[in-house]
Amino acid sequence: MARLSQRMKRMVLVGVAVLAGVYALLGGLVFFQQRRFLFPAPPGAREPVLPGATLLRLPGPEGSTVYAWHAPAPTGAPTVVHFHGNGEQLADAEWLAQAFQEAGLGFYAVEYPGYGLARGRESSEQGLYAAAEVALEHLHRELGVARERTVLQGQSLGSGVAVEMARRGRGARLALITPYTSIPDIGARLFPWLPVRLLARDVFDSASKAPGLTLPVLILHGSRDEVVPVDMGVRLGTLFPNATLRLLQGLHHNDVLSEPATREELMRFAAGDYPRER
Description:
Elements: H1 2-38, E1 54-59, E2 65-71, E3 79-83, H2 94-102, E4 106-110, H3 125-141, E5 150-155, H4 157-167, E6 173-177, H5 183-190, H6 196-199, H7 206-209, E7 217-222, H8 230-239, E8 243-248, H9 260-270
Parallel strand pairs: 3-4, 3-5, 5-6, 6-7, 7-8
Antiparallel strand pairs: 1-2, 2-4
């Protein structure tokens, strides 16, 4: 019996060691591969094309090039600065730029490092912020668009970039489409058995920044979003002091802007028609 007991103890210890090794292996895989999961840039690179719009190539950090796409606003009208989702590139915003253009608004989109025309560089939270800063500084100083006429707009991944630019005082209004509270919050739901908050390299913590942002905010979130849980959009709606939340019944993650009524609401917000500042 004593020999059997010792054998069982060894088997248990070996089992625990194997499980610990598998756990550590999975944790390491998530840590080192997380940017591949977070920044799945689409293949190839296409230049966006729209009559009246210009593709800009701006000097960026460490000798890089920041790509921004500008469709000028009519005199006195706001310009919407769009930060796209993680499976897109600048050219995918052609139809959206045209819609804003037809609504009498300017449109300005920024490419992320590692995406589309900016492929070849590593994507990271700080890299996305740096590219956005370069593009916005050019918009304000060189293109003459005042911050008071700048509307920051982020979709999915881009919502975190838009919130950070709002925190830095780069715009007067903020529109968030299918936004998340933070990347670790999403990761914790996907991998509840891992210490995601300790492993995350890029956090995009919009929830912690929201209470300090008093500018008007519009949040659009589909009730059947299968990528970013809708309760994250709801929570952000409670954290921003001056937010309007629109839950879009029956819509998913990628079809929020497919509804004409939703786009019209977004454009009215960008034009300053609502919501009124409290």
